[in-house]
Specification:
mainly alpha; 6 helices; extended
Amino acid sequence: MKSGAGDDPFAEDSSEAEDTPPDADTDQDDVVSEETQSDSGSSSSSLTGPSGQAQTQSLPYKYRRDSVKQGRNQQPVFLQSETEELIEETIDRIEERFDENIYKTDVVEAMLVAGGEGTTPEAVLQRWGYGMKNR
């Protein structure tokens, strides 16, 4: 590789390309791809190491994910119009109680979990980290 402030860091030096056997590039690519895969497996670079895993797992669900879809599987659900209205009413009630916007996906899943556990969607969402706003 050529060095210099204005040079392309990915440009190959023609003398290197001629001296390097074809199999050597393949071996280097495998090492690079293995390193990339191991790096991309960690969700947070600041929480690496043995205590990093515990710190991430101790965070409520809302805060340890990067998006609302992360860690979820998509399931098609067919709902009656009355059920859709119930979901919207539940979202409004919970957003008012927690004084923050809440993803519809979280509310629907919390309603399912609450029904299975015999608790309320609010209790499930609170366990997942809703209502913990910094004040």
